[in-house]
Amino acid sequence: MSLPHLSLRPTSATSPPPAESRPLRRLHVITWGCQMNVYDSGRMADVLAPLGYRPADSAADADMVILNTCHIRERATEKVFSELGRLRVIKEQRAAEGRETILAVAGCVAQAEGAEITARAPFVDIVLGPQTYHRLPEMVARAHRAAGPVIETDFPVEQKFDFLPGAPAEQDQAVTAFLTVQEGCDKFCSFCVVPYTRGAEASRPVAGIVEEAQRLVARGAREVTLLGQNVNAYHGAGPNGGDWGLGRLIRTLAEIPGLLRIRYMTSHPRDMHDDLIAAHAEVPALMPFLHLPVQSGSDRVLAAMNRRHTADDYRRLVDRLRQARPDLALSSDFIVGHPGETAADFEATMALIRDIGFAQAFSFKYSPRPGTPAAAATGHVPETEKDRRLAELQALIRAQQDHFNMRSVGLDLDVLVTGPGRRPGQIAGRSPYLQAVHMDGPANLVGQIVPVTIRQCLTNSLSATLNNPAYAQERASA
Ligand code: SAH
Ligand code: SF4
Ligand code: F3S
Q1: Gap between the Cα atoms of 118 and 73, Å rounded
Q2: Considering only CA atoms, which of 222, 154, 230, 151 is closest in space to residue 185?
Q3: Predicted model pTM
């Protein structure tokens, strides 16, 4: 794995012929990893749409398959090669029927492994890193000429966002959408590959973000989650010069008519600036649910992780956030068994979890990533001990999550209706706290925020009844 670097290479400026004059082709995208990969997969489909590519449900039906990969934990690379083995069989079957299949590997494993992928899997046509997918049409053209594999894993100087079209007009936009505002990371936490795979921290200019948000809303999105590996480090160029922080960006987006809810992820505790905290108090569209990873509750481990804050800094930060927004609920990420983590360090993490009280959290066993400082450190924790700590931590988080959801029963909450429920006559949506909620109601409420009373807490969702169903019905048909 090499450090991010810049290289100058021109992009093809020729635009493809209009979609109508092109044969219909099918595209299947398999997405692993974080929300940013989900967003990227959508944009890759967008840039290929002018070439005639439309979504296919399965790889067997697709003229092009993109495997969008994640490198965050161990065995990522082996998982990719095992999936590629499956795709190879499909490609060969299709070839026997006279049909061509272009196979592309994208995302963070593509960035980290580069030419290693085509060396081990010569049937792969394209390997592209997360910063180059605006060049996909050109890569596809080169792949057709079949002069060997196309590999693009540099960090181009041009911003891919300047080259990305919106989704084709006929494609339905879901009620909720992701929007990448910032990418890359300069924090270099001891354990993490992201600074190597996504490159240096960079923010998109405000104008392009506002335009994209307006486009999403015009197509039906009502809730937008702003994405970034370090989203609260956002510092994009404002329309009239100067750098804007995330708080200011959120205040501006909140003025877009029809954009009812705003969220952002993932944040780093060190970048939680005053203006952003104030936005939680002042912007009603900003949802009272924050994913704020802390990783550990031990100051020793936090220092070893290069997080550059203490457990008490995190406690104080959460106090300030809760002062700004008393109903704020929190979620976090935890790593157990980072090199050097003792039983006492782990207890400090458990104490922090008890002190804060989380609505939800993701937790992982430390997984050594080649090329990162922690992988080369001493004091690796035995696997069985990591298993034990993870189980204990997850039991505590599960109890807190159940408690949080149980407390919702009897509450009146606003639910954004996102689609039909599982049973006929049912609709489903999400609470301000990202809880899945379902209730009886008419399908034409999709895209609306409706007041409900939570009646029951089930394993993975809440059931509710509409408050004033007649009024809700009237609003839906208005
Ligand atoms: N940018 C975010 C998260 C990036 S990765 C942040 O700063 O927190 C998502 C999560 O994966 C991390 O929060 C961390 O908990 C986990 N993770 C990252 N590298 C890991 C590793 N080597 N082993 C185990 N978990 C890891
Ligand atoms: Fe990885 Fe740390 Fe950057 Fe998050 S802040 S992406 S954990 S290096
Ligand atoms: Fe995975 Fe890359 Fe996201 S490593 S978590 S897909 S930034």
Answers
A1: 21
A2: 230
A3: 0.92
Backbone angles phi, psi at 90, to 5 degrees: -65, -45
pLDDT tens for 423-463 read 999 999 999 999 999 999 999 999 999 999 999 999 899 99
Q: Report, at the CATH architecture level, how domain 412-477 is classified.
A: Beta Barrel (2.40)
Ligand 3: distance of its center to the CA of 71 in Å?
6
Cα-to-centroid distance, 333 and ligand 2 (Å): 11
d(CA 305, CA 298): 10
The CATH code belonging to domain 22-152 is 3.40.50.12160
Q: Tell me the CATH class for 321-407.
A: alpha beta
Residue 162 has pLDDT above 90, yes or no: no
Mean pLDDT of the chain: 92
The neighbour count for residue 354, using CB atoms within 10 Å, is 12
Give the distance (Å) from ligand 3 centre to CA of residue 325.
Answer: 30
Instruction: Among 72, 183, 367, 397, name the best residue to mutate to test ligand 1's pocket (greatest count of ligand atoms within 8 A of Cβ).
Output: 72
Atom 3 in ligand 3: residue holding the nearest Cα: 34
- Report the range of poorest mean pLDDT among 75-89, 139-153, 229-243: 139-153
Q: What is the pLDDT of residues 284-320, one digit of tens each?
A: 999 999 999 999 999 999 999 999 999 999 999 999 9
Work out the percent of the chain whose per-residue pLDDT is above 70.
92
Question: Can you tell me whether residue 222 is helix, strand or coil?
Answer: coil
- How far apart CA 405 and CA 454 sit, in angstroms, is 10
Domain positions in the chain are 22-152, 172-287, 321-407, 412-477
1.10.3430.10, 3.30.750.210, 3.40.50.150, 3.40.190.10: CATH of 172-287 = 3.30.750.210
What is the per-residue pLDDT across 370-383, written as a single tens digit (0 to 9) for each?
Answer: 999 999 999 999 99
Tell how far the Cα of 180 is from the centroid of ligand 2, in angstroms.
Answer: 16
Is 194 a pocket residue for ligand 3 (Cβ < 6 Å)? Answer: yes
